[in-house]
Amino acid sequence: MNAETTWRRLKPHLWITDFGFLLYWLLTALTAIPPEYAFKDYQNPVLVAWNWSFLPLDMLASLTGLGALLLSKRYDVRPLLLLTLTLTHVAGLNAIAFWVITRDFSWQWWVPNVYLMLFPLLFIVPILKSSVQPVSRPRDRVVQL
């Protein structure tokens, strides 16, 4: 997969994931997630703390992803892309690992977190292999980070 194709395929994932993180945390802060859709033991203070411990990780993933999207016209954003994809992968992996350990298999929480864990893996290697910018533009206008 060349850099142009990688970037074209990655952009929708970034928009959906990064706004998804922001939406999830807004709904969580407003306690707007109905109990029937919440993860098991959602009212347990330890699990509430565990959930909130993901806020910095998710926000950093979201901000670096949105930053890469917004800066891609002027800068080589591959370092930001690698950072956001790694953070996103770790967020999904950590949640899935916890639910495996606790034997909590709820598809409503597994599907989005398996997505967070797996989709970055499709793009990390092509980005590392790329020797051209993620979007086409005159080379002399690109400022390397």
Automatic annotation (TrEMBL):
Q: A Pfam family in this protein?
A: DUF5360
Alphabetically ordered keywords of this record:
Membrane, Transmembrane, Transmembrane helix
Q: Which residues cross the membrane?
A: 12-33, 53-71, 80-101, 107-128
Metal-binding among keywords: no
UniProt KW Nucleus keyword: no
The protein's name:
DUF5360 family protein
